[in-house]
Every structure is written in structure tokens, then in C-alpha cells.
Amino acid sequence: MAKIVVINGTPSLVSRINAVIEYVEASLSGGGFEVERINVAELPAEDLIHAKFESEHIVKANGLVAEADAVIVVSPVYKASYTGVLKTFLDLIPEKGLAGKIVLPLFMGGSLAHLLTIDYALKPVLSVLGARYILGGVYTVDSQAVRNDLGEVELADELKLRLNAALEELAEETTHRTLRNKG
Fold first, then answer.
1. How far apart are CA 155 and CA 158, in angstroms?
2. In angstroms, rounded to a whole number, what is the distance separating the alpha carbons of residues 63 and 60?
3. Residue 127: CB atoms within 10 Å
4. How far apart are CA 102 and CA 89, in angstroms?
5. Closest CA to 142 of 160, 123, 155
6. How far apart are CA 38 and CA 42, in angstroms?
7. Would you say 69 and 174 are in contact if contact means Cβ atoms under 8 Å apart?
8. pLDDT of 63-106, one tens digit each?
9. What pLDDT, on a 0 to 100 scale, did the predictor assign at position 90?
10. Which residue, 168, 171, 153, is CA-closest to 70?
């Protein structure tokens, strides 16, 4: 069974982007993938800020990344880039730590003005970490993830369609790569 790790780079665990993550995890788990999540905001801030590579929490998180066949990087967009908390974790992934992995970025911003954040802010960092199989990703505006009267987040149908297409590509590429590496 292929393993996929979700790196959640939102500093708030009540963010609407978490509904996107839950949708993605349910879809992948239902498709037979083993899915793990790293909520970067739950890692000790001191370990992140002081780059404590040897911290048991950082070692465990990096172990999940190392064992994964694919990585999904999720972040809201702040100030035309991904979050600082995500950057502190990416800085702690070993050099070439994403080599051989399929990577799918999922970003959410306030407007389409930051649509190219994935291409211009994230992809160069992923490339430095050895990622060569970076899928196009999904950028969504936060108006496509709206809280209803019960406080639950509802994803727009158009967003679900784009997520489904990206997840289908991720599943195909991951399955193909996993089979090729085993055979």
C-alpha cells in the first residue's frame, strides 16, 4: 500500500483549509492509500524556530516524509506566499528529502491575485529538497470553502471537481511509481 503524507502548513487548526485536507484524506484513504498528516503548528515552536534537527518531534515528522511515496503540501497564502510555519518545517527536511516523491501542492488564498504562489514561492523550495515530480497543484480562493450555519465548512462543487482531478493524477502517478520501484 502506497503511503502519502500531508504536510499541513496552516498555523490555525480551525482554518477552513482543514476541510480541504479532510476531503483529500478521505478520498485517498477510500482509494486504498495509507495517509498520515503532519500538522506543523502542533510541532514544538522552539524546535522549528531554532532548527532542532535532532528533536524527537522533528525526527518523527521527517520520518513520515521519508517513508512516504507522495507528499501533499497544504498552506493558506499570507502576504503572497505560503506560511512561515510551513517554511520553518521545510527548512528542517533533509537535503534531497523529497527526492523520488510525487508532490501535490494545495493552497488557499483570499483572491486569485496570488494564483502563482505555488509556482513562484513553493516550487523552488521543493526543487531544492529534491522534488522532481511536482504536480500542478490546486489553488483555491477561500470563498470556495464556506462555513454554514452549523459552523461546518462546505466545499464548492467546482473545488471538489478540481481536487478530484488532482487526486486522481496523484493516485495514478504514485501507484505507477510505486509499482515501478518494486518491480
1. 8
2. 5
3. 13
4. 18
5. 155
6. 8
7. yes
8. 999 999 999 999 999 999 999 999 999 999 999 999 999 999 99
9. 98
10. 171
